[in-house]
Specification:
By secondary structure, this protein is an alpha+beta fold. The chain contains 5 helices and 3 strands; from the N terminus they run ααββααβα. The chain has one domain. The termini are close together.
Amino acid sequence: MRLVVLSAAVTFVLDQVAKFVVVQMLDLYGRQEILVLPPWITFRMAWNEGINFGLMANSSDIARLALIALAIAISVWVWHWVRREPHSRTVKISAGLLIGGAMGNVLDRIIYGAVADFLNMSVPGISNPYSFNVADIAIFAGAIGLVFFTGREKTT
């Protein structure tokens, strides 16, 4: 389980450091947009009160607490599921990515009331209106890893 904890901790720290550097140190909160490598990569401030792409967004405290509880419940379930039987290193890392990313977004909801999203990627001629963050990438990668690598070669 050390690999799950290490993967989750590294993911959590990377997410929070990235948010601090971009949102606070580069003052994305005040500037709202920083062109990094336009249109491919732009830092665009977005406060996500819902789940991915702002789905189920609701500024009520009940909705925010429900999303916090849901993220914690899923993380606890994944933790217990991975502990029950031996899994490959890839599955353990994937579980850590998902848990660390979820906890990064939970901390944002507790501190700010919403998740700080800032990464925006587009292509010439097509403008993507959505922003995301390191935690979102980790959650997605972790979930994909769990789907594709669970049930394959299992080791302790």
